[in-house]
Known about the structure:
- By secondary structure, the chain is α/β, with parallel strands linked by helices.
- The chain contains 5 helices and 6 strands.
- The chain has helices at residues 35-43, 59-65, 86-93, 95-98, 117-123, and strands at 2-7, 27-28, 31-32, 49-54, 76-81, 103-107.
- The strands form 2 sheets. The chain has a 4-stranded parallel beta sheet, with helices on both faces. Strands 2-3 form a two-stranded antiparallel ribbon.
- Strand 4 (49-54), helix 2 (59-65) and strand 5 form a beta-alpha-beta unit.
- The termini are close together.
- The model has no long low-confidence stretch (mean pLDDT 93).
Amino acid sequence: MKGVILAGGLGTRLAPLTHITNKHLLPVYDRPMIYYPLQTLVDAGINDILIVAGGNSAGEFLRLLGNGAGFGLKHINYTYQKGEGGIAAALQLAEHFADGKQIAVILGDNIFQKSIRPFADKFR
């Protein structure tokens, strides 16, 4: 199974913080927000991951996460969402990545207290 993290959008409700960065790069406790959904997917045994980013700070995801080695990954895939198209448009960008296989989609600003592994295993 592949994983997709949706981290586009402009985060206008968090302005002025998001005037200089993507909301998913803002800190939540001791790490950037994007770390939480990424770790959630990795903990669920999903290691083929696409991050859909947008806005002026999209390149910062690559700078922050690199190839994902800090999460035990060999590679992270990235794609760019131009403008505001919402979840449907972001998923359309992930269609080539999914390649007809099952995907788990998580929003880049979601933080789960419990593991999603049992649900991922059942879905597999």
